[in-house]
Amino acid sequence: MLRPVLQYPDPRLFKISEPVAEIDDSVRELAQDMLDTLTTVGGVGIAAPQIGVLRRVVIVDVSLMEPHEEGKEIPQDFRVVVNPVITVLDPAKHVENEGCLSVPGFRAKVARPKRVAMDGTDLDGNPVRFEGEGYFGACLQHETDHLDGKTFVDRISYLKRSMYEKKMKKK
Ligand SMILES: [Zn+2]
Predict the structure, then answer these.
(1) How many helices (H) and strands (E) would you count in the chain?
(2) What's the gap in Å between 149 CA and the centre of ligand 1?
(3) Quick one: which of 32, 103, 109, 159 has the fewest CB in 10 Å?
(4) What is the pLDDT along the chain (171 residues), one digit of tens a residue?
(5) What is the pTM of this model?
(6) Catalytic residue among 66, 73, 143, 165, which?
(7) Half-sphere exposure (Cβ direction) of 30: Cα atoms closer than 13 Å
(8) Ligand 1 center from residue 152 Cα (angstroms)
(9) Residue 165: active-site member
């Protein structure tokens, strides 16, 4: 089911999400709603709090792991990760121009550790691990940030953030 995507600065986007203790129908339904919403609005990832559910579930597009060559389409490959945990594998700074479904009409350069791993489980409770750097690494960190009440807007300069907030107020 398509669910509305919360927009910054909705207070639910700043809350810490609860770990999933047991994968039951409510979690499977949540994952399906997240997938329906993501594929309808379009994007490369989504976290449960973005549809107003404060539980630790994300969806990431693992096709981004593959090197994307000019003119070669790689179909999106969405994977659900329950209770994701990020481990930094290479702390060197990497900058990506990030955007977010919850922060429409705004992109900004965000510096994060270059290479990370995301560990969690799939919807059957089997362990999953995705490793990535560059754009994919940034996506893994971006989605997990949402579970800790952070959007990429919290990782940019005060000046850029106030520019965005002013723009939002005008609307
Ligand atoms: Zn986001």
Answers:
(1) 3, 5
(2) 11
(3) 159
(4) 999 999 999 999 999 999 999 999 999 999 999 999 999 999 999 999 999 999 999 999 999 998 777 777 889 999 999 999 999 999 999 999 999 999 998 999 999 999 999 999 999 999 999 999 999 999 999 999 999 999 999 999 888 888 888 888 887
(5) 0.95
(6) 143
(7) 24
(8) 7
(9) no
